[in-house]
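Aim 2 progress. For PAR1 protein, the working sequence is reproduced below.
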Amino acid sequence: MASSFRILSVLAIALAICAKGTLGEIACEHLDQDTCAYAISSAGKRCVLEKRVKRTGEEAYTCRTSEIEADRLRNWIETDQCIKACGLDRKSLGISTDSLLESRFAQQLCSPQCYDSCPNVIDLYFNLAAAEGVFLPKLCEAQEGNARRGLMADIKSSGFVAPGPVKYTVAPAPVEPVKYTVTPAMSPYYN
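Predicted structure tokens for this construct:
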């Protein structure tokens, strides 16, 4: 009796381990080039597609784990519907904020099909835009109207312009530092 209980216990543990592996522990290094870009590992790290040229001149693609963490997302392979709706490419070899300057891309990113349905993509571009000093919801709001020029200028200049030189004829009054705190912005999916 104890022997059959042990066998059942060992069998149950083995089955649980196998099921866990088949149910979707995502490791970026195990993804192919058709699922790598815009995927997130089970550890919450974003996957990146890399290209290398073999000695024969042939191009080879590999998927690697980046150091970039996704906010609250894990075990995620982006759907083909989101890739298409957001104007993305599965063979992207990296992402940059430059794509936000492209009007067509920004329109697709801000479209209801992408913005309202693809939290992984929006989280990624929300953080990219924030790194450039741009608030993605404002950029998308501007996409709806024609106020895009001002925001595009903010992106190009990172939103800050240094003041020009000032010529004083008398000594300027001392300037007191301003103290303020900034609360980090969160992706619209986590507010």
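The chain has two domains: 25-77, 79-159. This observation will guide construct design in the next reporting period.
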